[in-house]
Amino acid sequence: MQREAREKLGILLGLVGVICFSLTLPCTRVAVAYFGTTVVGLGRTVVAAILVAGVLIIRKEKLPSPRQFISLLIVAVGAVLGFPLLTTWAMEYLPVSHGAVEVALLPLATAGFAIFRAGEIPSLKFWISSVIGSVAVIIYALHLGLGSLKFADLAILLAVIILGLSYAEGGRLSKELGSWQVIAWAILIGAPFFIIPVGLNLTTEMLHAPIHAWVSFIYLAVVSQFLAYVAWYSGMAMGGIARVSQIQYLQPFLMILFAIVFLDESITLFTLIIALIVVFSVIIGKNTEIRKVQPISQESLPQSSETHNSKSID
User: Fold this and answer.
1) Domains in the chain: how many in total?
2) Which of 50, 26, 73, 4 is nearest to 256 (CA)?
3) Which domain does 257 fall in, by range?
4) pLDDT tens, 177-212?
5) Coil, strand or helix at 306
């Protein structure tokens, strides 16, 4: 009974994490109009670092090892620098619903990097689903771009690839450091490098930004950059990675819903159809069987290839 309650709490925390992440693009769209790309994309980390430092000190967390530090650099490049900065810039030019469709490829990108980091061989079904999802996103971007890909589209797709690698590396490292500690240390690693560029882009006009702009920025710094990760990683630790990670399929639709509610964006049937195609391809791709060849060593007998489900690696 206690285990069942723990799993339900894990699913609830996972849902909270996904809802929090789903508000990231809408809040970015609001904040960037008043604070600019650099302050929103990098400033959120500087603010989050203050909160993170306090939590780590209170909990007396030990410092990562040099080997773990290298992995944390990969996480920081994706989750702390690349994704926030690229998506912030893209949200100056694209509607949130547009970005939501492209970000829907994130679970597939994460699974792909996790597979390769584990030395596994993806199945043909994985590649087919990856191609279907990617082609659907490209067609969608071309359609809205009147026959050409915009740089903002390329920025979001690059952000998805970088964050996918970061998630895969963070998922592997969380087994050693703990769930939320990975993003916490990544924030502390990145923040010192962002102070100067953020400071150079601060202006007195920002003090007169409306309250909804400040609320959006604070949300990005406190929730999107840190607390959402705490809920998400804690949820997967309690409810199981395979089960809780399925909730992530709701994210693009929640993003679209929030874009309608908070930004008054109009959503076309074409957008919803493409979103369904992408999410379906991601579900198929993440649940395909993959082959892992065990290395032959002198201490063990040769082992035959074995298969397991790729959704267990996130």
Assistant:
1) 1
2) 26
3) 2-312
4) 887 899 999 999 999 999 999 999 999 999 999 999
5) strand
